[in-house]
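Quarterly update, task 2.4: NDP-bound model.
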Amino acid sequence: MVHAIRIHEHGGVDKMVWEPVEVAAPGQGQIRVKHRAVGFNYIDTYFRSGLYKVPSLPAVLGTEGAGDVVAIGPNVVDFKVGDRVAYANPMGSYVEERLMPADRAVRVPDNINYETAAAMMLQGMTVRYLLRQTYKVGPGTVMLLHAAAGGIGLIACQWAKHLGATIIGTVGSEEKGKLAKEHGATHIINYAKENFVERVSEITGGKKCDVVYDGVGKDTFPGSLDCLKPRGLWVSFGNASGPVPPLDIGILNTKGSLFATRPTLFTYTATREDLVESANDLFDMVGRGIVKIQVNHKYALKDAAQCHRDVEGRKTTGSAILIP
Ligand code: NDP
């Protein structure tokens, strides 16, 4: 028996229960991982609340972790007992030990510790595809990044700065603004106090942005579209304030022949090849010190509800992890 944070029904943080669960012997292609650290991600709150439905209940929350391989099933050739591994999928990581498909795990390089690995896999690989694939950010790119001091935010500020972009970051407080700037944001807008659409226009001299990265959702819609140049790209990748309402596609026409995408990491890392390439690129960026993973909040795994409260209450910056 091991302990896990499970939900038996969707709802608030009170639905998160710390309870014993069985872990079977690994089956075909599976490994058993003993977690040394578990990553928190905003998506965990969606699966808890029911904004995203879990496949079945009860369900172990969490999508990310790092730890040691403690057993391997038949036909696992890439891993052995004792390997240090990390992953950002599938769900079921708020637990001391778990089974998972070996082809979703990657080996963690020696220069990256478990806590950093657990904090960076999901947010880091997301930033990679957002900046390198969804839109190819480079020198000359002017981008708007909402929630620039969050987990995705601080990684994206550093990575985009390295790529040479002009980064306009929005934040909910002065303190968060300072932090985002220290991590590479060129300009900061406190959207709790300022009209971000007007400020983007002022900052860019009316030219606006090539791309808007919007993980905030409901509260920044449709303003985000008004921050784009004609033919600019709106990347709506999350719902921290609630989901974007259903929209009339004609809005993309009237606001300047805009492009829109609603991507997810799980498509960009669907094949083993894509996953390994993405993880290796991230390990390289972190290993070379270009991106520093800010693990600003640590909780005992059994106290995961407090982590959810703090992040949903906008009290956190950078990444949060849970320690089994
Ligand atoms: P963050 O650490 O960025 O936390 C969310 C932040 O959103 C808050 O700190 C807050 O910053 C801002 N925010 C704005 N409005 C609200 C609100 N009403 N309630 C709560 N927060 C609000 O989280 P993550 O880095 O984990 O994730 C950021 C976004 O990226 C999320 O929407 C997440 O779902 C998405 N995501 C998408 C992925 C994908 O592949 N599509 C993968 C990973 C994450 P402030 O106070 O500065 O406004």
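Highlight for this quarter: The longest strand covers residues 30-39.
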